[in-house]
Amino acid sequence: MTATSSVPDLITPTWEYAPAPEARDVVTIRPSHGLFIGGEFVDPADGGSFATISPSTEEHLAEVALAGPRDVDRAVAAARKAFTGWSKLSGTERGKYLYRIARLLQERAREFAVLETLDNGKPIRETRDVDIPTAAAFFFYHAGWADKLDWAGLGPNPRSLGVAGQIIPWNFPLLMLSWKVAPALACGNTVVLKPAETTPLTALLFAEVCQQADLPPGVVSIITGAGETGAALTAHDDLDKIAFTGSTAVGKSIQRQVAGSGRRVTLELGGKAANIVFDDAPIDQAIEGIIDGIFFNQGHVCCAGSRLLVQENVHDLVVDRLKQRLGTLRLGDPLDKNTDVGAVNSAAQLERITALTDTGEAEGATRWELDCPLPERGFWFRPTVFTDVGQSSRIAQEEIFGPVLSVLSFRTPDEAVAKANNTPYGLSAGVWTEKGSRILWMADHLRAGVVWANTFNRFDPTSPFGGYKESGFGREGGRHGLAAYLEPAEVDA
Amino acid sequence: MRPPTDRLADALHRALLPLLESELPLLESDMTSLVLPGEADLSEVTASGSALRRFLHGLPGVDQVGVEKRAATLATRSIKRASKVQALELAIGMVDLTTLEGADTPGRVRSLCAKARIPAPGYPDVPSVAAVCVYPDMVATAVDALSGTGIHVASVATAFPSGRAHLDIKLADTRNAVADGADEIDMVIDRGAFLAGRYGQVLDEIVAVKNACGDAHLKVILETGELATYDNVRRASWLALAGGADFIKTSTGKVSPASTLPVTLVMLEAVRDHAALTGEIRGVKSAGGIRTTKDAIRYLVLVNEVAGAAWLHPDRFRFGASSLLNDLLMQWHKQATGRYWTSNRVTID
Amino acid sequence: MATRLDVNKTYKLYVGGAFPRSESGRTYEIADTKGRFLANAAQASRKDVRDAVTAARKAQPGWAAATAYNRGQVLYRVAEIMEGRREQFTGEVAVSEDLSSRNAAAVVDAAIDRWVWYAGWSDKFAQVAGAANPVAGPYFNLSVPEPTGVVGALAPQSSSLLGLIEVLAPIIVSGNSVVAVTSQDRPLPAITLAEALATSDLPGGVVNLLTGQTDELAPILAGHLDVDAIDLTGMAGRDTTDLEVLAAENLKRVLATPDTEPDVTDPPAGPRRILAFCETKTVWHPKGR
């Protein structure tokens, strides 16, 4: 059912938007990248490298140095060396460095946006309007904290932890870097950061920003590599703090790895968020929220609203409208300013999404997907909606991390809460209803670190983000996020 | 294809399901009569003011932040090259070229009509505008000037812009305009009655004006700037559609804010949902404050992505504007010649 | 005058508000610091841990749903009940910890006062730890601490009463329930505390106390997937790597072991123990007309 199908014919040629690609030449990608250690780009000790490609075209973008254990040693040593000076620097001066970085990110925003889109495959509209501005905002927000840590909630004179090893995922490369680096630096720590192997380029461009900001050498080091590099980093015995965003499985292995060490850890892991729509929801905005919830960033979002829980008496209406709205999504060239859905980040991820969705069908769910052509090259997956999904189905239980929505129904608020909480995860949840008291009751009962009521997928530097249960622990953002990088003074005494 | 009655029943069921299941007193027959066209059914609705109120208050709410965010996102669409030329020509053809001043004279109206017929002399690809919109006493002049062109003559009526007059005056205003040859009437609703909750009265007036229009098309101005909330815009939209509006129109242009993207978005949703419910297509006119090509294209994107491409037609979407046309023409010339144009080469009318 | 024979207490576990013996039927001998027999304590088993976690899980939502004012009053009530049994606690602490009566009485006073201190936090820690966040957009945004759920706790080994309370009170004041393993060799004050808890309006199952071998029970708690967090205070100075590895299986929040048993004579500097077993929830809502 679409509104237009029942409309009498008029001569209305369809209006195709001409391609509107963002200029790619704002960014120059160096053919090969070293590791950023101690304030300069250096060759890896073992001389290895790997390629990073554009997932939308499979075009080779650059060679990136592969950091081995000796490089991890060097980076951690540089961070350790820098720590003394950095942590003793007055908060005001530390803050000024972060303000500089924020401004540099704003100045070079277009460059970062294009590079992120090339390396990640996400639409330029998102990198331009969300990823990069929010990353700059994270630095700006935390800059102001640097000389106000006495009010961070840990009592007077809290102390920094030391050297933080940070590992970030490929879904929001620069934004996740800012979530990690900004609070760590504001609190007087130094960092060794490893970006994901499929999206290292904006982190390496950020290294140039650190140089332009004249950040003291070693305060930020960036080492590139895959899981082995990450494992070498988290295993390093001279770290005081580990912060990881990624899969729950790796998060657990990190927690095992650091067991007994007393090392501080923040883990921001997977999710299987319920987006709950009641029959009195502001329906058109709820549809937008559902779309935003699962198709934003191709569903590569740990807090994605991947389980749509619809009150049974509006189930068909919501599903109809959702499909109608999905029909207007524009999938294709991520650099095109009108693209809504970009490429899946990697062949491996595409394979995983494909395998899990196949399971959905095999388990009896009804599959619907957007009828749109897919580009010939690159990694692409059509926005997909599953209806008739049982709570026990794998697509309702496991994190797919792709543009795949499972629709389930409920009858009462209690049932909605029970189903929403019926998962080992607890990162986020959405509620759509115009009834204020129900929103607050639902917000109380949902076991999730972030509850979006009548909105979804909003992020802000002032707003703490992080999970309940197996979605990890610790918070990023807001006053709460500072606690992850500080120790109360008395522990020291 | 299934018979229309089945489609209608299905659509009704889907759209009204939440209402039917949430509130006991609402009977399905009430709902059906409300949204079905035809005087008999409308008189049934007016006979039951409580059913009307329940229906309007049972419409899904509109979240301000959500709708504004959606409009802002759509406003980032980048329309280039051929799609821009198409949009410019479409937009020019959708303009209700308007003059609504106390100082209007026959000379000014004739000048405007000349511009309406041939907006860009020497460039036959540039279409005529959709209509010229004037006060009732200028209708005869406009009809005379546009005779044989196919350009509609629209007249504001019903004690425009405030609407604060007795019903007999409003109806006489309407009849006079139609008698002078206006084939489109832009009426204003009684915002006072609407805000006081006297929906039946608002509906009655719309129906009465619609009758007074005869064959002329009726555009119902909601004056959204005075309705203040999107919930009210949605309710007033449905009220106007139920009353027989051929178009629902945002604003008189005399109240600020006039048309905005999110208000138009909510109204486009109403005509879209109304079409799904009844199979009948109604139009939307955004009026006031739309001055630049960039604005106009953003509206067209809304039309395209919210209501659907079927609404990309002057019979279904209009711009009520005066200065917009010249900016559209400047941009059209730029697209056609590759040079940035000068306002010295576009006529002031 | 003929001496009267004491009626000795049978020390049992405290699970779900009841006082069962260990399902294993095992007991172990408790002696004072000079080796003199005091009592036989129930030696909890794997299944007792299971039952206690079940009871804790069942009790937790209701306890968390109680108003903060109500939880505060319940904790204060515990102090009242303890005050009435002050002599008994003093005697048990004296023999368990080898303290003079006077010193033991001071410990008991501190223990009672500690309940009062934590009772007062019930409706304040959320104000201290919550935040209204000024996000850059038209949204209401509020962060509040919420209880983590079911917490496993290893109570301090030396400070048998005050140390236990310093572990229990901050866990439950926010709405968590707890399964605590008491001091292994000094469990008697804990069971007497359970009797106070059982008569103090605290819903059954909110606090569950297991006496027995810490090394036997700790891995079961640490590995239990329905336990959301674990307090390792009772392992002070010992290597807890294995326990932390077990805890990682469901990403338990771990309150790490200090090098030495903490001095709990005075209340801590702030609500940090409370917040160690809280999650921060952030709620967004648009602001519109």
Describe this protein's structure.
The complex is a heterotrimer of chains A (493), B (349) and C (289). In chain A, 38% of the residues lie in helices and 16% in strands. Chain A has 493 residues and is an alpha/beta fold. In chain A, β2 and β3 form a beta hairpin. In chain A, α2 packs antiparallel against α4. Chain B has 2 domains: 1-58, no CATH class; 63-345, Alpha-Beta Barrel (TIM Barrel), CATH 3.20.20. Chain B is 54% helix and 10% strand. The model of chain B is unreliable at 1-43 (pLDDT under 50). Chain C has a single domain (27-286), classed as Aldehyde Dehydrogenase, Chain A, domain 1, CATH 3.40.605. Chain C has 10 helices and 10 strands. In chain C, the strands form 3 sheets. In chain C, strands 7-6-5-8-9 form a 5-stranded parallel sheet, sandwiched between helices. Chain C has a 3-stranded antiparallel sheet with strand order 3-4-10. Chain C has a two-stranded antiparallel ribbon with strand order 1-2. In chain C, α7 links the parallel β6 and β7. In chain C, α4 (101-121) packs parallel to α6. The longest helix of chain C is centred in the middle third of the chain and has 21 residues, at 101-121. The chains are: A alpha/beta (493), B alpha/beta (349), C alpha/beta (289). At the A-B interface, α9 and α10 of A face α1, α5, α6, α14 and α15 of B. β18 (450-453) of chain A pairs parallel with β10 of chain C.
